[in-house]
Amino acid sequence: MTEPLQIFGWRDAIDIAIVAWIIYRLIIMLRGRVAYRLLLVLAFLAALYSLSRLAGFEAFHWIVGSLFSSLILILVILFQHDIRRALMTHGKHRHPLTEDRDEQGERDHASLIIGELIAAATSLSSRRIGALIVIEREMGVMSHVETGTEVDAKITSEILTSIFLPYSPIHDGAVVIRRGKLMRAGCFLPLSQDPTINKNLGTRHRAALGLTELVDCVVLVVSEETGTISVTVGGRILPVSDAVSLRKVLKKLLEPRWLTE
Ligand SMILES: Nc1ncnc2c1ncn2[C@@H]1O[C@H](COP(=O)(O)OP(=O)(O)OP(=O)(O)O)[C@@H](O)[C@H]1O
């Protein structure tokens, strides 16, 4: 009798490596929670599809197969922007905070922007002015956000602070940062529907959580009521105690993905 290990050749190893790589890239791309759930449904349907075939349940196999194809189509439609962006930028060295070409320039620029974000957050926090700052990573957020006002400005703590001052016409809502640029202000984010959220959190924090449940991005929140600064990512809220820990958290979350994964 042939041993399984004797049948397993280099072709199988390459085959498994390719499939594992595709699944890994899919998980990275669809890391927001809703996308994750869709991916799990897809995996479940794939398992049912294979099992129903093995068991010889023809009708059930046909139904699951149709559901499977429809779900793939729905995924492609839902994530068309992200898929296009991922394909266009595949293999490129991308930093969420800068378009700088060389590695040192990229680090310096990113560090400068993180410094501006920290200065703005601490200044707003000390004056009990609420703020909501969305920082895109690999995925775009605008398909989940009500557009607000175009800003297209360099990121400085002064601009960020003045946007959130109560008499600013665009202080309500969130600002969106893409590749180190302040793109929009006054944006409305989807609220989290998670019933387990701490009841003490108001709508500003629910909005930050809501967006990060849907899209892989980082949201910096300053509470108007308490002045606390927190960072939300992947539907979780991370309170930060001071500027040093805020720098640490932002640096970690905003490194180019190929360095962190
Ligand atoms: N869905 C949303 N998208 C964007 N901004 C929002 C959203 N919901 C609330 N905000 C912003 O948060 C502000 C304050 O809302 P609210 O007082 O309900 O939140 P809060 O969490 O209690 O505030 P804080 O924690 O800062 O005291 C709003 O005026 C608005 O600027």
Automatic annotation (TrEMBL):
Residues 80-243 form the DAC domain. It comes from the Bacteria. It catalyses: 2 ATP = 3',3'-c-di-AMP + 2 diphosphate. The chain crosses the membrane at residues 6-27, 34-53, 59-79. It is an enzyme of class 2 (transferase). The keyword ATP-binding applies. Its EC number is 2.7.7.85. GO terms for biological process: cAMP biosynthetic process. The keyword Transferase applies. InterPro entries: C-di-AMP_synthase, CdaA, DisA, DNA_integrity_DisA_N_sf, DNA_integrity_scan_DisA_N. PROSITE patterns: DAC (PS51794). Keywords: ATP-binding, Cell membrane, Membrane, Nucleotide-binding, Nucleotidyltransferase, Transferase, Transmembrane, Transmembrane helix. Probably a homodimer. Catalyzes the condensation of 2 ATP molecules into cyclic di-AMP (c-di-AMP), a second messenger used to regulate differing processes in different bacteria. NCBIfam families: diadenylate cyclase CdaA. This is Diadenylate cyclase. It comes from Geobacter soli.
